[in-house]
Amino acid sequence: MRQIEGEILEREEYEVGKEWGITTEVGEKREDKMVKMGSVLETRGPREEDIAFIMSSWLNSYKVSPVMASCKVGLYYERQRERTKRCIREGRVLLGVNREREDQIVGWVCVGEGVLHYLYVKKPFRGIGVGRYLIEASGIKAGRNECSHWISSIRRIKGYEWEYNPFYWDKG
Known about the structure:
Aminopeptidase, six-stranded mixed β-sheet
């Protein structure tokens, strides 16, 4: 597993990784850290108590994305809330959680049949392979894929090519 080869971990990432047992020293290459991801994370489906976090993190993080940044706030939340609910209802959500504490969520992914709806990773865990781990666990294969919401960070996941389709839900 190699997502961001050769990049060096920052001190903040080291402290988070140290707590989770997925790094050994400052300056460790990201590729070495990612190999260990499966040993500290596991995936599970969402529980009722997770839905509020999923909705909130999706709506708030997508609002500040370049795609939605200029959209009026009221319009955004009104329309995007419905789209988000539909994606969750008709798609499949997987959460990445601490293997030893299932209530400690690191990130989540929402996918549909052959489409990535959204990927969210908490800030301290970004750039170390959590996103790739979740995408792979969701069953999305490497290569060309469609996404219904544009997330610029997914371009960094090597082996995947993303085609943004904002009209995904307009399909028959």
